[in-house]
Design a protein that fits this description.
Helix content: 40-55%
Number of helices: 4
Shape: elongated
Number of strands: 0
Number of domains: 2
Distance between the termini: 36 Å
Radius of gyration: 18 Å
Structural class: mainly alpha
Strand content: under 5%
């Protein structure tokens, strides 16, 4: 389940793990303790890559769908005459100002 702008509930096991990790960091916010979170993220990224049949460097773990959409949108280079088609049911964050400027 994707988290679209912090509006989608997480599955219960995910909630519990987030609570557990939040309690951990709250108990010890030292840089030594925080380092393990980067290691956990890399383990998750490798597991996702294997599940999807991709390479880990092809996987980006982001906070929510809005952040992922904006990373892609802001990474595109548009040229005069390029056309962008957006579905009318698209998430509002995908209608970035850079896309709107193409209409001018």
């Amino acid at each position: 389940m994707l988290n679209a702008a912090n509006l989608c509930p997480s599955p219960y096991p995910v909630q519990q793990r987030v609570f557990e990790l939040t309690r951990d960091i709250d108990a010890d916010p030292s840089s030594h303790n925080r380092k393990k979170f980067a290691d956990l993220r890399e383990v998750a990224r490798c597991a996702l890559a294997e599940y999807l049949g991709a390479r880990p460097e092809e996987i980006a773990i982001v906070r929510n769908t809005s952040e992922g959409n904006n990373m892609v949108i802001n990474g595109l280079t548009f040229e005069p005459g390029d056309e962008v088609i957006i579905w009318d049911e698209n998430h509002p964050t995908a209608t970035d100002a850079r896309l709107a400027s193409l209409e001018e």
